[in-house]
Amino acid sequence: MNKPLDPATIGQPEPPKEPRRHQRTATGYLPEKTEDGKEVWPRGQESVWKSGLRAVETEETSITKSIVHHVQTTIARQAYNIDEEGAYRAIAYSVRDNLIVNWNDTQMLYTRKAPKRAYYLSLEFLMGRTLDNALLNLGLKEDYQKAARKLGFEDFEELVESERDAALGNGGLGRLAACYIDSGATCELPLWGYGLRYHYGMFWQQISTDGSQVEAPDPWLNHANPWEVHRPDVSYLVRFYGHAERIGDSKAIWSGGQEVMAVAYDVPIPGSYTRNTNNLRLWDAKPKRGFDLNSFNAGDYEKAVESSNSAEALTRVLYPNDNHMVGKELRLKQQYFWTAASLADITRRFKQLGEPFSKFHEYVAIQLNDTHPTIAVPELMRIFVDEEDIPWDQAWEITQKVFGYTNHTVLPEALEKWPVPLFQHLLPRHLQIIFDLNHSFLQAVEKKWPNDRDRLTRMSLIQEGFPQYIRMAYLAVIGSHKVNGVAELHSELVRTTIMKDFVDFYGPSKFGNVTNGITPRRWLDQCNPGLSSLITETLGGDKTKWLKDLSKLEGLLSHIDDPAFQKKWADVKLQNKQRFAQFIEQTMGVKLNTSALFDVQVKRLHEYKRQSLNILGVIHRYLTIKSLNAEERAKVVPRVVLFGGKAAPGYYMAKLVIRLINNVAKVINADPDLQGILTVLFVPDYSVSVAELLIPASDISEHISTAGTEASGTSNMKFCFEDLRYNHQYHPTSLEERSPALAVVCKVIAEGRFGDGSIYEPFLNTIRTGDYYLVSDDFDSYLEAQKMVDTAYQDKVSWVKKSITTTAKMGKFSSDRAIMNYAEEYWNIEPVKLN
């Protein structure tokens, strides 16, 4: 099971790891001392390390020279005290040097050619680890492995794995953004990303002794981040609060309030097998004046640093809880801070072209990733009207041509809304602009449908009530020239449900679809090198061809009946399972049966994602196996059921499901009758780097969300590079015909088989009464689907063929295809290749 957590450590930084039995250094280990005090360096490396760069210049490669240079100068260390962390940093800085050269050349190319640029605004970028991805994209991994060995670090993968995840996102939205900027560089598009530099990323998830999730801070910036470039020369003042005084019909002067400095940190984003290197610019918040000396001298020490603390809190934490007014205010401040700084930067870059603002949309395209950056619409209007003296109607025409909006949900309760009083307090000028836009828009609606008061109420940017609310999705729609969903079915639902009135008003041409995709570099080549090598060998020996055109994977189908190819494919899967099993044994102390079917569900914990349906099905499987005799148990298809994902800190029901999963696992894994037949694990602190181990080891991915609640399911795309994917379809049954099997499972939980049953009563009641997420309706058919999986897994040849077919048919779901779709149909930008 998960290793018990000492309550005294909850919320504290992770303790340092125990030292190795021998202290590792860049030469392998500390130099030995002879009796007369002389140092003896292992493997004859004294000339490399002790003599420093002079020896390297004549004896080693330029890469080795670069690493040694960064050891001695950038991190100011010597060979005898270089540990794993120091070696990682030196290698990372060396790799960054390559990125920076390409980055500078790419930006110079854009400056010289002045193409139209696209900017991707996302409040989350779930980047994961950078070193391995950068080396693969640069084509330098093998060279750096050799250099590391020359310096005594035999296990290069161990260095790679020492990197902290940059967890600047919660899940699919942030990971999608990371895939898109990777693909933008790979496709040689002039595309930048803009986000926030959170000091604390997605929380560190721990599991306590009773199976509950406990959140601890994730101070991922505690160590220097080699992958960012601090740009103190790029900074902008962002205003909050104050008052807005109108001048004439459309202009206003916004003054007073609080001013916060937005300072840029750049992260170079390399393309794959190209020198093109784009940029992810993250904003950090700093006070306009860091220290109030008068307050300090007067003895008021708290007031002396108050403004500093208030400003820096803006980028302290990813997505604070928004279940109280303070949290809501901070989140809205984050959204405006980031979009205002980004638009100031984009506008400054445009002005350098010397073109009139009437051509702004000919050089700038901005994509709103969900509703979080929607405040950019009135902010660009404020810049145009208040600062650049552009007439209102012309400013609005340009604004609409600049923005595109990607919708990620059709759930009305998930569409972002902000209370008008909060907006009035925090962003008074933007509230004026939104009300003015709404007035003009409703006049146009009234003209098209006279006297249709219901329609006006439905389409208004302002939801009436006490208080009034601003509908940010509607603002994004009217402020954009193009609106898209992220899968064919989802985009159709957008058009026919939540945006139907707007489709009627604007016409269907404004509403399109861009099916999401994932990058095959990270999710196949990087995390599954065995499969990548096999595909390359099978398709002709040049992986760059299929990695940059995933449709070429269909060439695998011509080998699907070759027994030798089938065996190689199955061997890769087994090796991936063994690798993941080793990770689990090292981190959780649990041994996995690698011949078992690995059944995986990893995503944010949410009732609509129905991890509950999965664990209830596991309990049913457990009860069924327990009822069998020894001979019958021997015929059961063995399973390892793996859960992973984090619940929002304030989401009680999701956290209760995590607790149930862990306590079910505790019982099942300790039962001698189930050893090797059924193992259940909740993998704590699921992250990109954990996914890179788990996904290649999976046999099936459970994608069992309530029908109509998931936009595209990019997590499943990653699994489809691997094996069988099944989607459970909803077949409704009446509440009077509830599942007898589920009733037994709920009874067993309530009776205390997995700990105090009363703890789970709130969860069980969600199924007994109402069952909003249709667990009871789908339970029996879910069990039937699981039986089909068991049957299919027993036919090993057929299973391997299914796996090959699934991977071969994944070409459409490359983020390269998706980003080119945006470039050609939404942004009107073209590739600009760096020679």
Summary, kept brief:
With 835 residues, this protein is an alpha/beta fold. The chain has 35 helices and 25 strands.
Notes on the protein architecture:
The chain has 35 helices and 25 strands. With 835 residues, it is an alpha/beta fold. The chain folds into two domains: 114-129 and 164-516 and 822-827, Glycogen Phosphorylase B (Rossmann fold); 520-813, Rossmann fold (3-Layer(aba) Sandwich). The protein has a nine-stranded mixed sheet, with helices on both faces. A five-stranded parallel sheet has the order 23-22-21-24-25, with helices on both faces. A hairpin with a 5-residue loop joins strand 7 and strand 8 (213-216). The relative contact order is 0.10. Mean pLDDT is 86; it is low at 1-30, 48-60, 714-718 and 723-736. It is an enzyme of class 2 (transferase). One of its GO terms (molecular function) is pyridoxal phosphate binding.
